[in-house]
Amino acid sequence: MGLTDIKKELKNLDKDNLIDLVLDLYKKNKSVKEFFDFYVNPNEKELLAKYKDKVYEAFFPKRGDRLRLSDGKKAIADFRKLGTSNDLLTDLMLFYVETGVECTNEFGDIDEPFYNSVASVYSQALTIMKKEKILDQFSDRAKKIVDDTRNIGWGFHDDLCSVYGDFYLE
């Protein structure tokens, strides 16, 4: 079934049935609930704080000691789906990178896939920032991330220096 079929079926519903369907979705689906909560009360700053907590939890779990980078990346993807502004999206992405750097500096070298994940998000964030013409807004944070990786192995510092140079030293 595609969007055309769904649209056709929804057009057949009267207003009360459509409202009941939306309310049922709201009760049963966490992401739908979050979407409508944000739609009704679009407090981006509060939402950003909530998603920063999710990203932080991926690197510094309250239970156990296993990193869950996929949870951090999922938080970024979910935040993006809510239709927030690009400056807040890049803020969250840089927070992911900053938290990854903090995790490494606190616990020591991790592994290559970890650094590839963090460097990838850094590159994606700077790409969005360039497209949106907001590189200057985040220049201090972008530089600090690179500076904070000076003593990290696996070529991580070199990768971030290269990405930084591609966007800020052109």
Can you walk through the features of this model?
This protein is mainly alpha-helical and 170 residues long. It folds into two domains: 41 residues, no CATH class; 126 residues. Helices cover 75% and strands 0% of the residues. The protein is built from nine helices and no strands. The longest helix is centred in the middle third of the chain and has 22 residues. The chain is elongated. The N and C termini lie far apart (48 Å). The mean pLDDT is 90.
Describe the structure concisely for a colleague.
The chain is mainly α and 170 residues long. The chain has 9 helices and no strands.
| Structural classification | mainly alpha
The DSSP helix count reads 9
- What is the succession of H and E elements? HHHHHHHHH
- The low-confidence runs, each spanning 5 or more residues with pLDDT under 50, are none
Radius of gyration, in angstroms, nearest whole number? 20 Å
Overall outline: elongated
How many discrete domains?
Answer: 2
Task: Please give the number of β-strands.
Answer: 0
Fraction in helix: over 70%
For the sheet with most strands, the description reads: none
The overall average pLDDT, rounded, is: 90
Strand content: under 5%
Straight-line N-to-C gap: 48 Å
